[in-house]
Amino acid sequence: MPRKIQLTYYPWITQSISGSTLATAIQTFAQIVSADLSSRIADQVTIDVLPEMDVSDQIANIKRPPPAGIDATLALMNPLGYAAAHSSDPAVTVILVVRRLLPGSTAGPTYRSQIYVNALTGITTIAQLRKRSFAFGSPQSTSNFLMPAHLLWSNGLHPLHSFSSLVFAGGHDTVAQAVYKGQVDAGAGHDGVIIDLATKFGYSNAAERLTRIMWSPDIPSDPVVFRTGDPALSAAMVSSLCAIAPTNNGAAPGNQAIKAFWGTTEGFEPIASTAYDILLSSAADLGLRLDDMLKRV
């Protein structure tokens, strides 16, 4: 019997490629998965990619059981979006996590956030950020807002009220460019944002101009979520994703498609839902309501 799956994704995972290029990569990924999955279950599988969704809309979509005629929903989510969805509906379950790798490190299921400054400011410690200017990216982002905000709070600075000015610049790359240009003194972003500024945006001296002053704790990486009432289909999807994006073959077509979306060719591995509890506890420490953080702005 033919199977039909819907795939959703959020649009601002990267700013280094256009929306149309990202959409093409997602379509390619869907085609690779559908071909492999069809061969595994001996049925024709069609994966329909829905238009890009804001995180709040993606959460609402995955919390609904698949509509009539749809066997499952496959969602490429951000960590905070998944944590919010799973906390309110345990049927929303992660099946795999994308693996991350930075130069000099070992690939794994986590990444980190960093707080960094323009070196010309002379700032070298978190305490020196008080009454300076600061930029986060999106309030919906795990590493561009929530975890660095918690890092500031843990080190005695209120993440919203300690600065002379505070902006939400929209994304990792826009924050990095603002700090590089001296438009703000400091900012936050994922662990590869300074590298990206040099290699993807042409700021060749980014590593000298931008100075990291603190790392966050490890953050669970981006989850792949699969909602279906068919456990056998779910197991087959896990096998298929691990086959098309293996951990030992970055050149595999599936890994190349993933690279456009997540910037990694390290494949997937299993992860427990409880790994994302650190995001819920961090939001609770800060008194932040997930519904407010994740609503469309």
Shape: globular
Main sheet record? 6 strands, mixed
Number of structural units classed as domains? 2
Helix proportion: 25-40%
Taken in chain order, the helices and strands follow as EHEHEHEEEEHEHEHHEEEHHEHH
The CATH topology annotation of the largest domain reads as: D-Maltodextrin-Binding Protein, domain 2
Low-confidence blocks of residues:
none
- % residues in beta strands: 15-25%
* Radius of gyration, taken over Cα atoms and rounded to an integer in Å: 19 Å
Structural class: alpha/beta
Query: Count the helices. How many?
Result: 11
What name goes with the CATH superfamily of the largest domain?
A: Cypl, domain I
Quaternary structure classification: single chain
Q: Would you state the CATH class of the largest domain?
A: Alpha Beta
Distance from first to last alpha carbon: 42 Å
Task: Count all strands and give the number.
Answer: 13
Give the averaged pLDDT, no decimals: 92
Read across the widest sheet, the strand sequence of neighbours is 2-1-3-12-4-13
CATH architecture of the largest domain: 3-Layer(aba) Sandwich
